[in-house]
Every structure is written in structure tokens, then in C-alpha cells.
Amino acid sequence: MLFGDTYVEFNIFEALKHLAEDHSTFSYMHIHIAPVGQHKTTFTCPFGMFAYRRMSFGLYNAPSTFQRCMISIFSDLLEDCMEVFMGDFTVYAESFEACLNNLSRVLRRCIDSNLVLNFEKCHFMVTEGIVLGHLVSARGIEVDKAKIDVISSLPNPASVWEAVHPRFQQDRPASVQVANRRTPTSSLINLVWRHFKS
């Protein structure tokens, strides 16, 4: 029986004035799989049977294992000058010089632990940036406008029926019947649809 790794991943942090975003490349491939566990990753293809020697995407506990590895590499720098979520690192400071110093410490740690960064995805010394899908700056954490433009351009639903998420539509009749049985008609209210206007 395989038990899930319940390692808790933290929330997005509050940003300061200067940021440097780094992204590791081939993130999971940095972690070796113990020889006694490699048989669990065996797969077949037209060329034969193979087993991974390094952790790959799709393994059950790969995300938690990788996050735990990143936390152990940068444990003394976390919440002091950087945050790490999977392969995304964010280095921050109040001033340009302090951010440059913190970035040097993080890059030195990457070199010492043989962690390879994807230079094309790195952004250095910026005052704002997209971190885990949110716009982070000295103002705090904001919604990325590019993410909500598509949603805000959709027409408002005319009924509750139209508001049901498409993923659940194949079970819609059963879910509506259950809701009808459990909801007295006197407690139903008219919905007023509002949307965000910037």
C-alpha cells in the first residue's frame, strides 16, 4: 500500500520592494531514486523495459518529495530573504543592494547543491512580477489582470442552471434532484450576478 506524503506546503508570502525570481530546470530530475526503489518506476516501450534512476513527473509523492528537498537545501534562507515553492524561488529585500546580496547567497547555495536554474525563466532585480499566478510587488499580492480578462468578458449566467461548472454537468440531474430535496422552496432567493469591474 502506498501512503501519500502529507508534507504541508506554505502559502504565498508578502512581497517587499525588490524581487528576483529563479526557476530550476528539470526540477524533479535533480533527485536520485534509491536503487532499491527503482523497480517501482519500471515502464515498457517498444525498445524494452526501463526504470527511472531519477525522480520523474507523475510519481505519486514526487511533488512533496521535491518540496521537502528544496526546503532542506534553503532552510536557513527561508522567510529571511527568500521563499521557494517547488522549482520557483523568489528572493526579496527592502533595497537593491540587500536584494543583490541575498541573490548572491541563493545562487551560491544553488552552485553548492548542484541545482541547475533555467536562465530563460529567471527575472532579476524587478519591482514586481508574476509569482505562482499572482502579481507580487511592494503593494502586496494582487490578481493578475491577464488571468481574469477572459472570465470578466464572459456573459453573466441567466440562471443557476447555467452557473453549474461544466465538469459536473454530466451529473447535473442527480445533483439538482438532491439539492431540490434538501432545499425548501421558501429559502430560495433570487441571485443577483455581479462581476468585477476594474
Automatic annotation (TrEMBL):
InterPro entries reported in the protein's UniProt record: DNA/RNA_pol_sf, Rev_trsase/Diguanyl_cyclase, RNA-dir_DNA_polymerase, RT_dom
Positions of the Reverse transcriptase domain: 28-134
Domain of life: Eukaryota
Residue ranges the record marks as coiled coil: none
Protein name: Retrovirus-related Pol polyprotein from transposon 17.6
Source organism of the structure: Mucuna pruriens
